[in-house]
Amino acid sequence: MTKIDRSILSALQNGSHQAFEKVFIFYYTKIKTFLYGYVKTMADAEELTEEIFVGLWQNHESIDPEKAFDSYLYTTAKNRALNFLKRKQASKTIIRMQAPPMFSHSPEEEYIALEKALLIEMIIEKMPAQRKRVYQLRQQGLTNDEIAKKLETTKRNVESQISLALKEIRKAVVGCLWVVV
């Protein structure tokens, strides 16, 4: 297939499985390769590509055959990749905050790291039930959309709960550092 034209996009907009299949076959490898350039692992690129096409099918009615479909698809892919990378970096930061260092220079540093990890666990346990659940699901690697669906709430509420949870943790860790110093 050489090109996806307006008639295929119109058919996709109207819910044609055949049109979706044509779009999928035409773009899948291109989008996966594009995403690989961002996320650097083929497994992550494939997963994100699949999510994009699931989203495309779920929102097929909003496709505008008159607008640049390539731009739409690649912009969606880029945004997914950047959000994925942000989540991945945030998870690494939280894990570093929670885990005691593998190599410590002194017993005092080991003690401080252990105290910090215990403090973070206590903070999480004291969070309101919804915030705690959202934070734990995020730690398991779920996206904000997935958490919102699972908890039957809005994506905005999920984002707000994650933000509040991270603020509580940061505040406690910074407070802990002041006490230690």
Unreliable segments (pLDDT under 50, ≥5 consecutive)?
Answer: none
Instruction: Evaluate the radius of gyration.
Output: 22 Å
**Assembly state of the chains shown:** single chain
Number of H/I helices: 8
CATH topology of the largest domain: Arc Repressor Mutant, subunit A
The backbone outline, from C-alpha atoms, is: elongated
Instruction: Supply the CATH superfamily name of the largest domain.
Output: Winged helix-like DNA-binding domain superfamily/Winged helix DNA-binding domain
- CA(first)-CA(last) distance: 66 Å
Q: What letter string, H or E per element, gives the SSE order?
A: HHHHHHHH
Domains counted in the coordinates: how many? 2
CATH class of the largest domain: Mainly Alpha
Percent in strands = under 5%
CATH architecture type of the largest domain: Orthogonal Bundle
Class by alpha and beta content: mainly alpha
Biggest sheet details: none
Helix fraction? over 70%
Please characterize this protein's 3D structure.
- It is a single chain.
- This protein has helices at residues 6-13, 17-39, 42-58, 69-98, 107-126, 129-139, 144-151, 155-180.
- Helix 3 crosses helix 4 and helix 6 (129-139) packs across helix 8.
- It folds into 2 domains: 6-86, Rna Polymerase Sigma Factor, Chain: A (Orthogonal Bundle); 99-180, Winged helix-like DNA-binding domain superfamily/Winged helix DNA-binding domain (Arc Repressor Mutant, subunit A), CATH 1.10.10.10.
- It is elongated and about 65 Å long.
- The longest helix has 30 residues, at 69-98.
- The N and C termini lie far apart (66 Å).
- It has 181 residues and is an all-alpha fold.
- The protein contains 8 helices and no strands.
